[in-house]
Amino acid sequence: MMNVRNFRWTAVFIITLLLPTLACSLTGGGDDEDGVDALPNNAQVIDVAASTALEPWLTQAVQDFNNAEVMNSAEEQVYARLTAVEAGEAAADMAAGSEAALWIPDDRVWVNLLADQGNAAFQDDCVSTAESPLVIGMWRPVAESLGWPGLPLGWLDIGSLAGDPSSWAYYSGGEYGDSLRISHAHPGLSGAGTGTLLALVQAAQSKTEAVTAVDIQQPIVQASVGAFESGVTWFSTGPDLLGQTMAARDPSYLGAGVMYENTIIYYGKGDIVPIYPLEGTFMADFPACINQSADVKIKEAAGLFRDYLLGEEGQTTAVAYGLRTVNTAVAPLTDRDKMHGVDLTQPHILFPSPSVETVYAIQELWQQERKDVNMVMLLDTSGSMRGSKMVNMRTAAQNFVSKMGDDDTISIIAFETEPQLIVDHARVGDSRTKIIHSIEELSAAGDTTLFDAIGDGATQIINTHSVEASNALVVLTDGEDTRSYRYAFDQRLIDLVNEAETAVFTIAYGRDADEETLRALAETANGNFYLGDEASIDAIYEEMSAAFGGAVGVGR
């Protein structure tokens, strides 16, 4: 029986939002750009769930496969339908009953973990489709300031720099911010996230053989993971989103991010280079595993699509998207990619695939090393929020609180004609039910005092600020300010927001919201702007929950 662990949180700042942000149902549905819904009745459609790191390749491969009109033994055309979903998310979904014909996680351990959760349908027929090492993506000038490419860098080097701003200032010259800001994927969702933490354990233990759950409990391991995590400013739902996010900003926003080599090639364009850690790393081999509980025709169709991926056409496309081929008849990465910092002789040291028990154990350690979050949540309760807007907003906010860590603190300000503090810096573990009930009691009436609410929220952050916690301000509104008299959107308000190094997340809830102001506020505070509506609001809060390290994905 799966029991999702209650993860602790850290403040995290996302610059891009892809909706739906967490994976949709593995069985898919609705209109499809590949024309699945327009197929004749006898078409054989298969659902493929795959790591988001493969999304650029597989999006193209699915289109090419579908256009090739491949037939099964019954002379029915086979169509593939892709859902890009992280390994931990897929395992949680499939343990709960969702299905796919073909699953392509990062590593075989996720198939074994799903079996441990009660679904062994994917264990018996898995074949690697491509390879990509887990590397540290770093902006080229940042890497060069640290001695790259002449000086090898490792996991512990990055952790030391992240944990020691003075060392970072010495090596970087203070050009890229006061501290080394890094990111990696959520380890409960992503194989890349789990791999990051396990690679730190391997490095701290100076081991090339697989580490054990006992190794993870060693003080030196905990210290090394803690140092690395001290520099993590946000968690991505997966490596593909991390690659997009990093490429969209500059080195002062995010200096380094842990992702796969192919993601760096695809998004980095030579401006972001792969650092192959000197201690070693993991190699994702992306096994394509056929669901053995599916009927014969589905399994046949899944096999045909997998054969296509392994063939010369599919593998040539994989290489074009930065992956390492598993078909020796296909030429490897190009000279252009090598100019971008790719080294096919690396990594020199490969860590073995972890066990299911070490995956569980590293999640426990991850909980211990998270910073707590000090959050102030501003919720628009003006008259324009009446009806389903209010209902959906309340549900999303309640779900968000349900995933917070026990040691996190939250304040909630509801704003209409006047802002009202309805939850005052409550420790979530002591007050979770009460907080959720307070949100349920919200109703819509009055005007919109958006700027006064932001000022009050910033003041609340300042009054409750702690260097041991990360500070975040979440602002949701469906309109423009109509009544504020104490604050305006000016430099005074911006300075107040930034006084406690607060990360601001703003949500424009519907077409009437003041998108320009909300976007500007988020960007001035190293935060993120979300554009949402009633259909997407829950997904937005779910994305933020994952990004804060909330209780999503898999656990024991």
Describe this structure in words.
- This protein has 556 residues and is an alpha/beta fold.
- It contains 21 helices and 17 strands.
- The protein has 3 domains: 143 residues, 3-Layer(aba) Sandwich (D-Maltodextrin-Binding Protein, domain 2), CATH 3.40.190.10; 171 residues, 3-Layer(aba) Sandwich (D-Maltodextrin-Binding Protein, domain 2), CATH 3.40.190; 176 residues, von Willebrand factor, type A domain (Rossmann fold, 3-Layer(aba) Sandwich), CATH 3.40.50.410.
- Helix content is 39%, strand content 18%.
- The strands form 3 sheets. Strands 5, 6, 7, 8, 9 and 10 form a 6-stranded mixed sheet that branches. Strands 14-13-12-15-16-17 form a 6-stranded mixed sheet, sandwiched between helices.
- Helix 5 crosses helix 9 and helix 10 runs parallel beside helix 11.
- The longest helix is centred in the middle third of the chain and has 15 residues.
- It is globular.
* Fourth-level CATH superfamily of the largest domain: von Willebrand factor, type A domain
Inertia-based shape: globular
Kindly report the CATH topology of the largest domain. Answer: Rossmann fold
Helix content: 25-40%
Could you tell me the mean pLDDT?
88
Strand content: 15-25%
Distance between the termini: 8 Å
- Number of contiguous helices: 21
- CATH architecture descriptor text of the largest domain: 3-Layer(aba) Sandwich
Radius of gyration: 24 Å
Question: Which stretches are poorly predicted, pLDDT < 50 over at least 5 residues?
Answer: 1-36
